[in-house]
Amino acid sequence: MGACAATLVVVSLAIAGLATWHFSSFVVVPDHSPWAQAVDIKAVSPSRIDLSRSEPTERPGYYGLVWQGGHGIVGPIVESNADRVTRRLRDVRGYLEPGTPAGFDSSVYAGDPRESLGLSFRSVAVPDPLGPMPAWLIPGTGRTWAIVVHGINDDREVGLRIAPCTAPACRSY
After folding, report:
1. Model-level pTM?
2. CB 49 within 8 A of CB 74
């Protein structure tokens, strides 16, 4: 192998190593930015919200809607047109009006199991090699119960999506 080829191999390996090191932080280092899925609110009624059409607002499912001093639950798409998406809105806490800076949150519910869903719970610690992880033990009926621990780049609230199924009548929002 010539000196030019050896240099090319060394430079390629160095570039690959630097790229791997740089992009590994995207997986390992949590992103705690508060408005990861910003949405533009166009209109609000007691049970519906009109949002500017965007990738997050067209995505199916249920999301928490968070803004400074408030929280609501955004549900299924009711209708849409070329520039707007209308979705169901419920459980609004706080003042919400068109133009309020807000974002979709993967945590549908805000707060602990009692304040968000009316479920009893107990704070527990789950052992981990890095130290105890705070969790909620949500008792259910019979053999149904849950221990909710934070996930990567998230907190325990994201686990509350499953918590309604610990109640006698499993209700899913």
Report:
1. 0.69
2. yes
